[in-house]
Amino acid sequence: MQSQKATRIDLFSLATPQMRAFHITWLAFFVCFFAWFAVAPLMPVIKGEFELTNDQVYNINIAAVGITILVRLLIGPMCDRFGPRLTYTGLLILGSVPVIGIAFANSYESFLFFRLAIGAIGASFVITQFHTSVMFAPNVVGTANATVGGWGNAGGGVTQSVMPLILAALVSVGVEKTMGWRLSMIVPGVMMLVVAFLYFRFTQDTPEGNIMELRARGIAVDSGKKGGWAVFKQAMTNYRVWMLAITYGACFGVEIFIHAVAATYYVERFSLDLTQAGMAAGSFGLLALFARALGGIASDRVARSKGLDGRTLLLFALMVGEGIGLLAFAYAGSVVLAVVAMLAFGLFTHMACGATYALVPFIDRKALGGVAGIIGAGGNVGAVAAGFLLKGVGNLPGALFILGIAVLISSLCAISVRFSLTHKETEQKLYDEAVAQRAVTSGQPAFA
C-alpha cells in the first residue's frame, strides 16, 4: 500500500482522500480539544458557584485527563479493527453527550462525573494520528502527523480565549453568570455533532478505501491484519513504545496540564480578570498552530541525512529545551515574564509533541493502532501525574519546578530508542521510494 500513500501535502486541496482526511481530521481534533478544555477557563466562575475547595478543583483537573488514558488504549485497537472513520464518528457523537450534559450539573459530584466523561474525547488524538499515518508516505508523514496534531491542539488555546468571550456576550444581554457558563457549554457540543457528520460523509480509512470493506474483500492493509487486540499485544512487547510513552507524558502531559491550570493561575497569582487570564492562557495553546508542525517538519528534514537516529536525537534536544524552559517559568515574578517564559517552554513542548509522533509510524507498521494508543495514553499519564503532583505540593510554582526536572530526566528515554540495522534499512528504502515517487509525479526534486 506504500505506493498509494500521498508523498506530498497539497495544503489547499480537498480533491484526494488523503487531503480530505488531513483537513477533516485536524478539524475534528480541533473541535474535540476545544470541547475537552472548554470548561477550564470558566472554572473561576464555577468554583464560586459550587463553592469548591482547591482540593476539589485539583480532583476535577485530574478527572479531566484521567479517563483519557483508558480510552486512548482502547481507541487504538478500534482503529485497527473498524477504521478511523467509524471510530472517530462514534467518538464525536458519544463525546458530545457529557459536553452538553455538564451544563446540567448541580453539585460538585455531578460536575466531577461529567468532567471525567468529557475526558474520553481526548482519545481523538490517537485516531487523528492513525488516520494521517496510513494516508501519507514516510517522506512527509512526520509533517502530516505534526501539522494535524498541532492545528487540532490549537483548539485548546482557542477555547481559553473564546469561551470567556461567549460567557461575556451572554452576560451582556442579561444572562446571569451561573446560567451563562452552562449555555456556553452547548456550543462545543453542537460543534462535535456537526463535525461527526462531516467525518462520516467525506472521509475514508485509507487511500484504497475503508478498512472493514477492504478486509472483507481479502485485501491486506498495513495495520490490523491480525485484529485489533492482537496488534495491541504486539505493540506492548516493543520497548520503544514504552520509552516514547514516557517522553510523550513529559511533553503532551505538560501541555494539557498547563491548559487545565493556566487561566486559574493567572487569575489567582496576578489578579487578572477572566478575559485577560483567558487571553494569556490561550497564547500557550495557540503555539500549536505552528510549533507542533515545526517539530514534525524538523524531524522529516533531519531524517533526510540522519535517518531514524536523527529523529530520536532531535526529540532529545527538544525535551532538554522544554525542561530548562519549565524551570525558568516556575518562578517568573511578573505577568509579563510569566507569559514570555510560558511561550518559550511552550515552543519546545509543542515541537517535542510533534517530533514524538513523527517517530510513531516507524516503530511497528503492523501494530500502528496499538503503538499510537499506548504512546498517546502515555501523554495523559503524564498529565494525571502532574495533577497529583500539584495536589501534593499545593502550589503551582513548586510543581512546575519539579516537572522541569522530570522532563530533563525523561529526555533520556528519547535517546534510548534505537533501531536494528535491518529496520533502518527497510525504512530508508521506503523513504527513498516515497521521495522518488514524489519526484516522478511532480516532475521536480522532492523535498520532505
TrEMBL record:
Major facilitator superfamily (MFS) profile domain sequence ranges: 21-422
Main location as per UniProt: membrane
Localisation per UniProt entry: Membrane
Gene3D superfamilies: MFS general substrate transporter like domains
A GO CC term assigned to this protein in UniProt: membrane
Entry's transmembrane regions: 21-46, 58-75, 87-105, 111-130, 151-175, 181-202, 241-262, 274-291, 312-332, 338-360, 367-390, 396-421
Annotated protein name in UniProt: Nitrate/nitrite transporter NrtP
Gene source species: Methylobacterium bullatum
